[in-house]
Amino acid sequence: MKILAIESSCDETAVAVVEDGRRVLSNVVVSQVDEHKLYGGVVPEIASRRHAEAITGVTDEALIRAGLTLDDIDGVGVTYAPGLIGALLVGVNFAKGLAFSADKLLIPVHHLRSHIAANYITHSELKPPFLCLVVSGGHSHIVAVDDYTKMRIIGRTRDDAAGEVFDKVARTLGMSYPGGINLDKAAENGDPLAYQMPHPKVADGPYDFSFSGLKTAAINIIHNASQKGQQVVTEDLCASFRKAVVDCLTENLFKAAEEFGYKTIAAAGGVSANRLLRRRLEEECSARGYKLYVPELSLCGDNGAMVGSQAYYEYINGKTAGADLNACATMSIEIG
Ligand code: KG4
Ligand code: ZN
Question: What are the C-alpha distances in Å from 269 to residues 161, 225, 255, 289?
Fold first, then answer.
C-alpha cells in the first residue's frame, strides 16, 4: 500500500511517499526556519502562508522523486493534530482536496504518533510493545506503545517541553532559532559540572517532568553574570544545562521501564537528535541489557515519511476520515 503523506504542523512543509509503513519512496522537506530565525521563533501566521505557497510544489516533487503519479497512490495521510492550527489546516485542507478529487483514502495522523513511527522506518524489526521517550519542541512524554495505535502516557511535562527549554536558553545565550541544536553543539566542548543546575522532581508524579525551573535557573545565571559585567562560559553553561535536562529525562524513563517491565526502549521527536541524550540512552540501555531504538538523525525532526509510516498503521487498524476532517491544535496521543 502506497501512502502520500503530508506534514505541516509547524515550520516544515513536508511530503513523502511510503510503502507499507516501512519503505520510503520519497521524502521532501522544505523548511521555513530561515525566515522564522528573524523573529527568534515560529510566527504562526507566516508559517501558514508559507505552507500554502509550498504545499503543491512539495507534493509534486515527492511524487516525481518516488517515480509515481497520483494514480499509483492508495491513500493520503495527513497530520491533523496537535500543532499550530493555521499551519495544520493548510495540510488538512490540501489532503482533503487531493484525496476526494482523486478518489483516495484519507488517513488522519497524530503528530506525536508519527514521531514514534520514524523508528519503524529506521528499524525494520521494531514492533510494539516498547516504551518511548517522545521529546519535541512542544511535548515531553514517556509513552507506553502497547500497539501501533494503542498508547498510554506514563509521564509528561507539567510545564515546558524539553525542546522549548533548549530553545529558550539558547536564545538567551544569543544563539539563533531553533537553538536546541546549537546549544547541543556548544555543549560538546563544555564542562557539564561547571555550573550547578537544579534537577526538579514532581512530588505527585514519579515519571513526570518539570523543566521551567531549570530553564529559569540557567537564564538567571546568564542575566546575573551580565548585570555584574561578567560573561558566562557559553560552552560550560550549555553542557551543564544539557546534562540536567538529559538527567531528568533519562532518570524517569528508566524508572518507568523498570517499574512497568519494558526492556525495549525508543526515543522520538526533534530532541531525540540530541547528542548527549543519544549517548546516555545507549549507555543506560547497554548497562541494563535493554534494546534501544532511535530514529536516524534525518527523521528526528518533522518530516512526511514518519507520517506515511504511522498512516499505514492507523489505516490497517481501521482509521480513515471523511470530508468533515478538521485540524486540532491540541489532542492527546492516547486519543490520536
Ligand atoms: O519534533 P520537532 O522537530 O518539532 C516539534 O514537533 O516540536 O522538534 C523541534 C525541537 C526544537 O525545540 C529543537 O530545538 C529541538 O527539537 N532539537 C534539539 C536538537 N535538535 C532539535 N534539541 C536539543 N538538541 C538537539 N540536537
Ligand atoms: Zn514534531
Answer: 11, 33, 21, 24
Measured from the CB, is residue 137 less than 6 Å from ligand 1? yes
Report the CATH superfamily, name and number, of domain 2-117+299-316: ATPase, nucleotide binding domain (3.30.420.40)
Q: Does the C-beta of 163 come closer than 6 Å to ligand 1?
A: yes
With a 6 Å cutoff on the Cβ, whether 7 touches ligand 1 is: no
CATH fold of 127-297, please?
Nucleotidyltransferase; domain 5 (3.30.420)
Residue spans per domain, the chain? 2-117+299-316, 127-297
User: Going along the chain, which residue ranges are E strands?
Assistant: 2-7, 12-19, 23-31, 75-81, 105-110, 130-135, 140-147, 150-156, 264-268, 291-293
Structural contact between residues 221 and 227, judged by C-beta atoms closer than 8 angstroms: no
pLDDT tens by residue, 211-260: 999 999 999 999 999 999 999 999 999 999 999 999 999 999 999 999 99
The preferred substitution site among 166, 184, 299 for testing ligand 1, maximizing ligand atoms within 8 Å of CB, is 166
Is this model's pTM higher than 0.90 or not? yes
